Amino acid sequence: MKKILLLVFLFTSSCSTTKEFLPGFVPDFFVNYFTEEIKPYSNLPDFIKSVETYLVWEKKISGEIISEDSSLNLYKFNEEMYVPTSDRKLHIISLENGELRKSIDTVLDIFSNIIVDSKLFYFGSKQDTVNAINHVDGTLLWQRLMSSEIMSISKSSDSDEVLYVRTNDSKISAIDVNTGKFLWVNSQLPPTLSIRGSSSVLLEDDKVFVGFDDGKIVAFDSENGDAIWQSQLSAVKAETIIDRLNDIDGSMIIDNGTLFAISYQGSIAAIDSFSGQVMWSREASSLYGLAENDDNIFYINDDGVLWCVDKFSGKPVWKQEKFFKRLTGDPVFHNNFILVKDVENYLHIINAEDGDIMGRIKNKDPIQSIYSDYDSIYLLEKNLSLKKYQINTILKQ
After folding, report:
1. Which strand (E) or helix (H) includes residue 19?
2. Any idea which of 42-51, 154-163, 230-239, 355-364 has the lowest mean pLDDT?
3. Which of 33, 37, 231, 298 has the most CB atoms within 10 Å of its CB?
4. Coil, helix or strand for 345?
5. Options 3.40.50.1170, 2.40.128.630, 3.40.50.740, 1.10.10.10; CATH of 70-195
6. Is the pLDDT of residue 4 over 90?
7. Phi, psi of 340, rounded to the nearest 5 degrees
């Protein structure tokens, strides 16, 4: 009996102690059972709750979003939310009550982000086609085969007659939205190695701004596709081919004639959108995009640190380090909050002024898309649960 008790004691001791007493005897599966799991990211940080979150409505849509790196996004047009899915469907949801207004069969698999205007919606398919579909009756107006995967599509406004398409082979194509005719195509030399992803094309003052996989930003003439200027966000290291990875994969921002961009293993920079001159630059690394308010730029770096830097100087204003390796995706500015999602399906609500944690929302599935709209936010989970929330600051007594 004593021998049995001793054996049980040794088995249930720590892994290191068990191996010390019985080296080579204890099976790995038994040792691993009693070993505490080590997470590659920080524990969920504590905070003092200072906001209330209200679930206004929730709509569960049939299907799911399968791919981990899917670009499927929420798109608001008028008083409706357009929700693409992985099963060749586009659902149109009422913003007021979450009711399903219509479902459209897209025939092809939606791969890129979607764009909606008063007549049509546009998307890139897994079959490498750009498609324009009438969202009133679901008919296909035109379809164009592209040279490679469609990574993003952009359109400046409802009245704009041109769609700009970014493909995986570093080509930018301008397409007439009424006919599907190619207006111009500009091709850049793709790097030998890059990280999968693509920043969306930006449109401003008759220019088309594109960030490429080698850290280069090019401004094109929107009329003919000619390159006007280019600027380089250089890699910090250049010892190996991995060190030289310098992709601009996140969304860029233009504000009052200044373009803000960030690259992987490179820098965050403010660039004059008219001349291409770098106004300020500081070392940074991120695969995600940028958010902004009137005075600051927000980004999540490779370590999951949320940074706030001054727009005019690039100097750090604050940083939130309690989410080491937890945060993913683009930060979203909503009223005076920064919304960030993490690897355990939480949405964290951060004070945009000082970086303090104000609240969080726990979700069942990973968050696919976040849309900020006046006093409400919309969250789309990968299980196609669409939720409308309102966030209010708790008034101190």
Report:
1. helix 15-21
2. 230-239
3. 298
4. coil
5. 2.40.128.630
6. no
7. -135, 140
